[in-house]
Design a protein that fits this description.
The complex is a heterodimer of chains A (717) and B (343). With 717 residues, chain A is mainly alpha-helical. Chain A has 29 helices and 4 strands. In chain A, helix 24 crosses helix 25. The two termini of chain A are 34 Å apart. Chain B folds into 2 domains: 209 residues, Rossmann fold, CATH 3.40.50; 66 residues, CBS domain Like (Alpha-Beta Complex). Chain B is built from 15 helices and 13 strands. Chain B is globular, with a radius of gyration of 23 Å. The chains are: A mainly alpha (717), B alpha/beta (343).
């Protein structure tokens, strides 16, 4: 009893676990239950029960409600789908003037808006694309097809790759200096020589449209939310869901609304990239000391000047992190949106992965990652750049960069012109190295993969079999063995113990949504894969983080590594694991682990770093040794921050598990992928996305509540 | 006397949702406790005073006394809940946004406790900021800012960023920025509180030198009574939003109006604060010694001379005219005498 009184929390948790396991054992698996058939698969089977709600028939396999809840929300995806269809095709028909046919046509409002938006996006992308690669669509947009037919010379010629390479090097030099300039130049030359010029420029043009638009919208909405409580309240739930929503899931509704192509990809990228930008804008603006705002006001700023000359520059750091995030998301989406027809490196990557041509995939992936790193560094340098008033510089010094650029343009054009003579009859390599005509290392990599397979086949296979048979299958079976009631009790109980009634209710609602959807079993599989990934990632991340923390150099080295790894688009992680483990669950899990270890490591180091120096000294003077200091001082204090890392780890793991569906898993991601090719998939895809988001939010809510309490307790909030 | 530059009439600032309504119902009798029970916090309670041209009013109070809130009402960084504020005869609370911005751009300057410099601008850009906001050309504003840089003694550091400067230097930038538009009214909100004691003293001296040269109308906020005594023409002591006493430093030291004010004056070294004028006997007697002292001499400086005399000492003004007398006993009484019943 003494013991119980001393640790009341521990006792409560034990009690919760006992109830949970008791429920698990008390409720038997129904004999008719088979996972693969699942619950509601929308196929007709005489054994199914059904109900009708809002005119939609939902069929499902009925079980004891303690075992699995009936999919009472099964009508939701169908209903969403029908609503979308109704909005697009029937709602508010309005007459519009059609330029091409010179007559009025009746069209539903939403369809018209979507078409106009589409046309605008397409124009933007095409314009940048044609500046880089050449073409005539932009000119057509200003004139007409007839005009182009009559004047076949009027075509944007495209820039020779030499000019773009030198131009980006000069820009990098202006922004940061020699180091970055060299890097920029090398990246561009690499891309060109290895024959990835065209797809790279396609991807680049996509990003040059998507990133600035996302930045502008994110900043604008962030400012609006900062200024008005009402806007913030309206935005907050959307932001929360979007943060844990897998990027995949947004693709499907976009497909319905905007069709297939680069424009849809840009819009969808904005949907994904804007929320973090908004959050960081709000965060940055909130953190400004009130006196700075007052100083601005007393300097006589009007509202506009206050916002753009005082607030935003002062909140620069956080807004910058937002820009970084936007660029990261854009690259990630550049790959994923290849599913809905975006051209460029992502499309090649996907194609190569589909054909199991690891070498080609690797080349495309490397190009994407290199461009991502380059843009990341350039945006950082741009934001840190200062203007200098006090240079009494000469004309040459002031305009040196522009002059250099003009010179390169001339030289580039001359070179390209010379190239037409040099490479007569073949490709003009000084203008553009055509796709797959450059140096290709694909064969080398493919041979490498084959060699690895041949040499280590036995070991890999053995490892694979062991992992799947002895670890993964039993774990999966255990997760599926949980009766829904037991899961609910566990989750709600945890919510209550951590955050009281409020947390318990929120968590309960989120769980119920998933439990009442037709995909509870799939959600369990998702949860099992994510759990496995998170546990391993945390072990690795916390260990590596703690070890690296012991030394200043290894700290900054590790953080740098994390930075670079985070820049890689998530899809790229699939390449090396497929190289080694082929198409198995192991591949997905290893990708999950690698990807999710990044935040775990980063937050561990940052958490340990955030321990005040004074406490360090105090501990040292109390005569602790290094190990004691770590366990008694640093870990307890850094723990809240590390838990936030756990939160991020979970989100990252979930994302990767969902993306892993591309390799072939049986979780929610698989269904999202299916919905992509389904005509009526929009509702399903969206609901599935919400389900995944809710899994993330359950943990998010629990962890955040706990961290806030703990921080208050420690007095470091 | 000409019109006061700043004039407050029964200014109230009450935080809370239905503060305005409650204030009207209370008929000017604001009791902090009853307001607090209704979810309102009283920041400034019935403040009325005037500041005339070239005068330095120091508002002294501990944290939470409402001194900063009062300053923000007068600079209209926050709107007063009740009362009237006049700046050079203009009703501040009636100004629309545009007029208010005009007023700030041309008439007001403010210095902040935490310096409130813009982190992304260099020293000279920070100082030029209010000028550029006004719409002055970059070159002109920079050259004007360079003058200010020289004025506060930061030459050679004009291209530094705030983060590269020490606290004292940062506050010099803050001061220079607030002076860049050549304001008539200068607000200083605890400008030296975040500085080390030595730097603080140096900055105070520097500040006095500047004020000597510029003769601005100043409202200076501080929680340091010694600083108030050193700088002020008049001091307002605030507690719980109420101005307890508003008077010259000497009168506050000699005649504290309330128990609260007296507590502050107890520890004050009077010989360093009071002038001969403050303690002299204005009736001149015939029986005076040969020694003459100036009336606005600080006691400390002449005490030794006076104490060696046996007779009373004549006090003269700048025109060498005798205006009063003082005897050694008086000096001893003032410095060491019972602090509870003064004079």
């Amino acid at each position: 009893m003494e013991f119980i009184k001393k640790y009341p929390k521990l006792f409560q948790w034990l009690f919760l676990l006992i109830v949970f396991f008791a429920l698990c054992f008390a409720i038997d698996v129904p004999e008719t239950y088979k996972f693969i058939r699942g619950q509601a698969e929308f196929i007709k089977d005489p054994n199914q029960s059904y109900y009708v709600f809002l005119g939609k028939e939902v069929r499902y396999y009925a079980f004891d409600v303690f075992w699995r809840l009936p999919p009472l929300l099964g009508w939701l995806p169908i209903w969403i789908n029908d609503s979308l269809f109704f909005l697009m095709n029937e709602w508010m028909p309005i007459e519009f003037w059609n330029e091409d046919t010179q007559e009025f046509r009746t069209r539903p409002l939403v369809l018209q808006i979507s078409r106009n938006l589409t046309a605008f996006m397409t124009f933007l992308i095409e314009m940048i694309r044609e500046i880089l690669l050449g073409g005539f669509e932009t000119i057509v947009a200003f004139t007409s097809w007839d005009w182009i037919d009559k004047n076949p010379w009027a075509e944007l010629p495209g820039l020779p790759w030499t000019i773009v390479a030198a131009g980006s090097a000069i820009l990098a030099y202006k922004l940061s200096g020699k180091g970055l300039a060299l890097f920029a130049g090398l990246v561009m030359v690499y891309i060109s020589i290895f024959g990835q010029w065209k797809p790279s420029m396609q991807t680049l043009s996509f990003i040059l449209v998507a990133a600035p638009l996302s930045f502008i919208f994110g900043l604008g909405l962030g400012i609006a939310a900062f200024k008005s409580k009402r806007v913030e309240k309206a935005l907050y739930p959307i932001l929360l869901v979007m943060q844990t929503m897998p990027q995949y899931a947004v693709l499907v509704p976009a497909l319905v609304l905007f069709g297939v192509g680069d424009h849809a990809a840009v819009i969808i990228t904005m949907v994904v990239a804007v929320p973090p930008m908004i959050l960081l804008t709000i965060l940055g603006l909130r953190a400004i000391p009130p006196e700075v705002i007052e100083a601005g006001r007393m300097s006589g700023c009007n509202n506009w000047q206050l916002m753009f000359k005082v607030l935003i520059p002062t909140a620069r750091r956080d807004i910058l992190i937002g820009v970084n995030q936007v660029i990261m998301v854009c690259f990630s989406m550049a790959v994923i949106s290849a599913f809905i027809g975006a051209k460029g490196l992502g499309f090649n990557l996907l194609l190569a992965l589909n054909q199991l041509n690891i070498g080609l995939a690797l080349e495309a992936g490397l190009c994407i990652s290199l461009i991502a790193i380059l843009l990341d560094k350039m945006s950082l340098a741009w934001a840190n750049k200062q203007t200098d008033y006090f240079g009494n510089l000469t004309f040459y010094q002031r305009n040196k960069n522009i002059l250099f650029f003009i010179a390169t343009v001339i030289i580039g054009i001359v070179l390209a012109y010379v190239g037409t003579f040099l490479f007569k009859g073949s490709y003009n390599y000084l203008f553009e190295v055509p796709h797959n005509k450059g140096i290709s290392t694909a064969d080398f990599w493919n041979k490498g993969v084959d060699w690895i397979f041949d040499t280590f086949f036995v070991y890999i296979k053995a490892f694979n079999t062991w992992l799947i048979q002895d670890v993964l299958q039993p774990m999966r079976a255990l997760y599926l063995r949980m009766p829904v009631v037991a899961t609910l009790v566990l989750v709600v109980g945890a919510g209550y113990l951590i955050g009281g009634i409020r947390s318990a209710l929120v968590v309960c609602a989120l769980t119920l949504f998933i439990a009442l959807s037709p995909w509870w079993d799939r959600a369990l599989v998702t949860a099992y894969m994510a759990t496995f990934g998170v546990v391993i990632s945390c072990i690795i991340g916390f260990t590596v983080g703690t070890l690296c923390f012991q030394n200043k150099h290894s700290q900054s080295f590790m953080l740098g590594v994390c930075d670079i790894f985070q820049t890689f688009p998530s899809f790229v992680y699939l390449i090396p694991v497929m190289m080694l483990f082929g198409i198995t669950d192991t591949s997905v899990l290893i990708a999950v682990i690698v990807y999710a270890t990044i935040p775990a490591t980063r937050y561990t180091i940052e958490g340990l770093r955030s321990v005040p120096v004074g406490l360090h000294d105090a501990a040292t003077m109390s005569g602790v040794n290094k190990f004691q200091r770590l366990t008694k001082i640093e870990f307890p204090l850094a723990f809240p921050h590390m838990m936030l890392g756990l939160n991020q780890t979970i989100v990252f793991a979930l994302f990767m598990v969902i993306i892993g569906a591309f390799i072939g898993t049986e979780d929610l991601g698989q269904y999202i992928l299916k919905a992509l090719s389904d005509k009526k998939g929009a509702g399903i895809g969206f609901t599935l996305g919400i389900c995944v988001a809710f899994i993330g939010l359950i943990f998010d809510n629990l962890i955040r509540t706990w961290v806030e309490k703990r921080k208050k307790h420690l007095g470091i909030s | 006397m000409s019109e006061p530059v700043i004039k407050c009439e029964a200014v109230y600032k009450i935080f809370g949702e239905n503060a305005k309504k409650m204030l009207q119902e209370s008929n000017g009798n604001v009791d902090a406790k009853t307001f607090q029970e209704n979810g309102c916090i009283v920041g400034v309670n019935n403040a009325s005073f005037e500041v005339s041209k070239g005068e330095m009013l120091v508002v002294m109070g501990l944290s939470g006394s409402g001194k900063s809130t009062l300053l923000r009402c007068i600079s209209r960084l926050t709107d007063a809940t009740g009362g009237k504020i006049f700046i050079e005869g203009q009703d501040l609370l009636q100004l629309n946004n545009k007029e208010l911005i005009e007023l700030r751009r041309n008439k007001m300057g403010m210095v902040f406790q935490s310096f409130a410099l813009l982190p992304h601008k260099t020293v000279v850009e920070n100082i030029a900021f209010p000028l550029q906001i006004k719409g002055i050309k970059t070159e002109d504003s920079i050259s004007k800012a360079m003058d200010m840089v020289k004025l506060v003694g930061l030459d050679g550091r004009e291209n530094y960023f705030p983060r590269e400067l020490s606290g004292g230097q940062q506050q010099r930038v803050g001061i220079a920025r607030s002076l860049a538009v050549e304001p008539d009214i200068w607000f200083l909100d605890e400008p030296f509180s975040a500085l080390d004691p030595l730097i603080r003293k140096e900055m105070q001296d520097e500040f006095l030198r500047l004020q000597d040269k510029l003769q601005k109308t100043i409202m200076f906020i501080t929680h340091d009574f010694d600083e108030a005594l050193k700088l002020a023409d008049r001091i307002a002591i605030m507690k719980d939003g109420i101005i307890e006493q508003l008077d010259t430093p000497a009168n506050i030291v000699l005649n504290p109006a309330t128990e609260y004010v007296r507590k502050f004056t107890e520890e004050v070294p009077r010989e360093k604060v009071l002038l001969i004028e403050d303690v002299m006997d204005p009736s001149t007697t015939d029986n005076l010694g040969d020694l003459k002292v100036l009336k606005d001499e600080i006691i400390e400086n002449v005490a030794e001379k006076i104490l060696t005399q046996e007779k009373s000492v004549a006090v003269i003004d700048n025109n060498n005219k005798i205006v009063g007398s003082i005897n050694p006993t008086k000096i001893i009484n003032t410095v060491f005498g019972g602090r509870k019943n003064n004079n």
